[in-house]
């Protein structure tokens, strides 16, 4: 993938370099179930602070804000490393794609901001650590990414590659699109009214699969513009990643068995199918995961 051919100009906020919270600060995961939480938290578009202690009252250590570097929204060109340049171009490319799609339907797209951080970050949804993985916070319309997650992808999530990394970002952008369209709010209301945990989880699965499909729509746009020169290997790497992060695969790795009613993001096959539906059609109207029977997703 020739990502350097993509446009620049994404909203990037660079908070790297702060070295984390003093004295160790907030801990994510650990203890019984920590591995499961870490595996499932990685990648999935939700700030899990409420599950990891991030929304609890801050300790004296957690309240020391010097652990978080000041935002740098205008980073001089000479200070931009390759990671910054990469996410800048991917985000700018998603901005172009979704601005065009929204304009075609008579709407205006509000461009999100991607926050780069290392180790720990303060979001509008609470504190989080790198172990949470990339996530989107609807309260501040920002995506959060510690780029060390890309190395985790290489080691543990089916391999990496530039298009697979881009898929991660485009998935989070997909959550922003859902927020813009009011879909996220509707899902939250349905989850609150759900009669069981399994029913509430099913709405989360629909939301995540739609974000996968929206990521595919962006991939189709990039391929159609012939700017990034996507290869079969690039596309296969994204498919491998989608398969690796299916709930069934993650549960099998972490606990040795699969509990479908506890799925929150979809099976490996579902994630691959919905990504490909968006990628092959390029049409967000093909990403309606809410009108189908749940067992047909």
TrEMBL record:
It is a single-pass membrane protein. GO terms for cellular component: membrane. The chain crosses the membrane at residues 20-44. InterPro entries: Uncharacterised_pept_Zn_put (IPR007343). Keywords: Membrane, Transmembrane, Transmembrane helix. It is found in: Membrane. It comes from the Bacteria. Residues 1-20, 55-75 are annotated as: Disordered. Its main location: membrane. This is Neutral zinc metallopeptidase. It comes from Deinococcus reticulitermitis. The lineage of its organism: Bacteria, Thermotogati, Deinococcota, Deinococci, Deinococcales.
């Amino acid at each position: 993938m020739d990502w350097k051919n993509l446009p620049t100009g994404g909203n990037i906020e660079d908070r790297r370099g702060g070295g984390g919270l003093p004295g160790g600060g907030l801990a994510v995961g650990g203890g019984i179930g920590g591995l499961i939480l870490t595996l499932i938290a990685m990648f999935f578009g939700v700030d899990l602070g409420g599950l990891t202690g991030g929304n609890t009252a801050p300790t004296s250590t957690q309240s020391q804000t010097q652990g978080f570097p000041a935002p740098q929204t205008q980073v001089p060109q000479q200070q931009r490393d390759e990671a910054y340049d990469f996410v800048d171009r991917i985000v700018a490319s998603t901005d172009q794609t979704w601005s065009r799609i929204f304009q075609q339907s008579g709407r205006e797209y509000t461009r999100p901001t991607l926050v780069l951080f290392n180790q720990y970050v303060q979001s509008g949804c609470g504190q989080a650590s790198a172990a949470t993985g990339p996530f989107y916070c609807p309260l501040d319309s920002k995506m959060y990414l510690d780029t060390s997650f890309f190395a985790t992808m290489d080691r543990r999530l089916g391999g990496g590659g530039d298009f697979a990394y881009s898929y991660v970002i485009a998935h989070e952008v997909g959550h922003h699109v859902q927020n813009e369209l009011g879909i996220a709010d509707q899902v939250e209301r349905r989850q609150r009214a759900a009669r069981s945990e399994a029913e509430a989880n099913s709405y989360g699965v629909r939301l995540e699969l739609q974000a996968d499909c929206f990521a595919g729509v962006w991939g189709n746009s990039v391929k159609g513009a012939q700017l990034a020169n996507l290869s079969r290997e690039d596309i296969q790497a994204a498919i491998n990643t989608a398969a690796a992060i299916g709930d069934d695969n993650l549960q099998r790795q972490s606990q040795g068995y699969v509990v479908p009613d506890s799925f929150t993001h979809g099976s490996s096959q579902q994630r691959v199918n919905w990504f490909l539906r968006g990628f092959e059609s390029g049409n967000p109207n093909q990403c309606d995961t809410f009108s189908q029977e749940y067992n047909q997703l």
